[in-house]
Automatic annotation (TrEMBL):
Residues of the full protein shown: 1 to 339 of 626
Example of a GO MF term: ATP binding
A GO cellular-component term linked to this record: mismatch repair complex
Species whose genome carries this gene: Arthrospiribacter ruber
Function: This protein is involved in the repair of mismatches in DNA. It is required for dam-dependent methyl-directed DNA mismatch repair. May act as a 'molecular matchmaker', a protein that promotes the formation of a stable complex between two or more DNA-binding proteins in an ATP-dependent manner without itself being part of a final effector complex.
Keyword annotations: DNA damage, DNA repair, Endonuclease, Hydrolase, Nuclease
Protein name per UniProt: DNA mismatch repair protein MutL
Chain ranges of the DNA mismatch repair protein S5 domain: 209-327
Entry similarity comment: Belongs to the DNA mismatch repair MutL/HexB family.
Single GO biological process annotation from the record: mismatch repair
Length: 339
């Protein structure tokens, strides 16, 4: 009998892992934006071409990387964000798996320029299908600029699976909007070919919302805030009269991570009961802050679901917060005492 089991070469292992992390250009954008935020960026620029199929580029003014770290960042399970298993239960960064760059570089042509504060020179590194093609010193601004070119250039089956440029572009914009909404104090812009789609200056959440959705939202927002020992809720909801027939402009962030939850959505809609027709959809951008030990974020990177220890309390607090905000919004007719 001969042995038949062998370890896969890194390049193949990375490509398999990439299938999990990078489904489409928008998933690469998500990872790059999260890395920029984790690096403490105050300004983030996004450039995309052809629905992100030929280019997704993110430029940040964050802390940058050393020469060696720039090389290391493309290794699988290489991260600066956790050290031991205890750290897993108090994650304060987006990243911690050390998988994103390795996965992206397994299925694209990646060029990264980076310079740490205080370093005179930065470094530029080219990685293609997990293979480092070259790395050399380079003059570049402080921070990191990363270009992801020709996604799935070496995996035709996956490339063919991508949707039209317009559809992929919609996913990119959606991802950009989610991140931009959750970090109003960070400046973001997004350029498609040579056209600037968003220019979002750092500011308050209300300004970010109008920056993302348009000035017409200015008069439509109702502030929502509730603090309990368990959970804090804050953000904005739309007035019942501005509710739309379609779902979409509805955002939950838990500890600043975008999540989807039909259960929590129901809590919000429930609070509108009697104020709008039941098939209407209210606008909301709501931030839930909860002790990280009471949730499980250690789920799949592309998943937007989350597990709460005590889902029912979250539901109750959220519903009460929205109800209260709406109560404060309802205009009470003033009595005319002059009669
Ligand atoms: P993770 O974010 O899970 O640690 P990544 O593959 O996304 O894994 O990144 C690997 C490492 O590369 C990060 O831990 C970080 O140290 C570094 N890195 C990635 N992107 C940036 C960036 N834009 N600025 C500074 N460091 C970065
Ligand atoms: Mg990351």
């Amino acid at each position: 009998m001969s042995d038949i089991i062998h370890l896969l070469p890194d390049a193949i292992a990375n490509q398999i892992a990439a299938g999990e992390v990078v489904q489409r250009p928008a998933s690469a954008l998500k990872e790059l934006l999260e890395n920029a935020i984790d690096a403490g960026a105050t300004k983030v620029q996004v450039l995309v071409k052809d629905g992100g199929k030929t280019l997704v580029q993110v430029i940040d003014d964050g802390k940058g990387m050393s020469l060696t770290d720039a090389r290391m960042s493309f290794e699988r399970h290489a991260t600066s964000k956790i050290k031991n298993s205890e750290d897993l239960f108090s994650i304060r960064t987006f990243g911690f798996r050390g998988e994103a760059l390795a996965s992206i570089a397994a299925v694209a042509q990646v060029e990264m320029r980076t310079r740490q504060k205080g370093d005179e020179l930065g470094t530029v590194i080219h990685v293609e299908g997990s293979e480092v093609k070259k790395q050399e010193p380079a003059a570049c601004p402080e921070g990191t600029c990363i270009l992801v070119k020709n996604l799935f250039f070496n995996v035709p089956a996956r490339r063919n699976f991508l949707k039209s440029n317009a559809v992929e572009m919609r996913h990119l914009v959606e991802e950009f909007q989610r991140v931009a909404l959750s970090y109003p104090h960070i400046g973001f812009n997004m350029i498609q070919h040579d056209m600037e789609l968003f220019q979002l200056l750092p500011g308050k959440l209300s300004q970010r919302i109008t920056g993302v959705f348009g000035k017409s939202y200015q008069g439509q927002l109702v502030a929502c805030q509730e603090e309990t020992p368990h959970l804090n809720v804050k953000g904005y909801i739309g007035k019942p009269e501005n509710a739309k027939k379609t779902r979409g402009e509805q955002y939950f962030f838990v500890n600043n991570r975008f999540i989807k939850s039909n259960y929590l959505h129901h809590a919000v809609v429930h609070a509108y009961e009697g104020l709008m027709q039941s098939e209407m959809q209210p606008f909301y951008v709501l931030f839930l802050e909860i002790d990280p030990t009471h949730i499980d974020i250690n789920v799949h990177p592309t998943k937007t679901e989350i597990k709460f220890d005590d889902e029912r309390t979250v539901y109750a607090v959220l519903r009460s917060a929205v109800k209260q905000a709406l109560g404060a919004h309802v205009v009470v007719p003033t009595l005319d005492f002059s009669l």
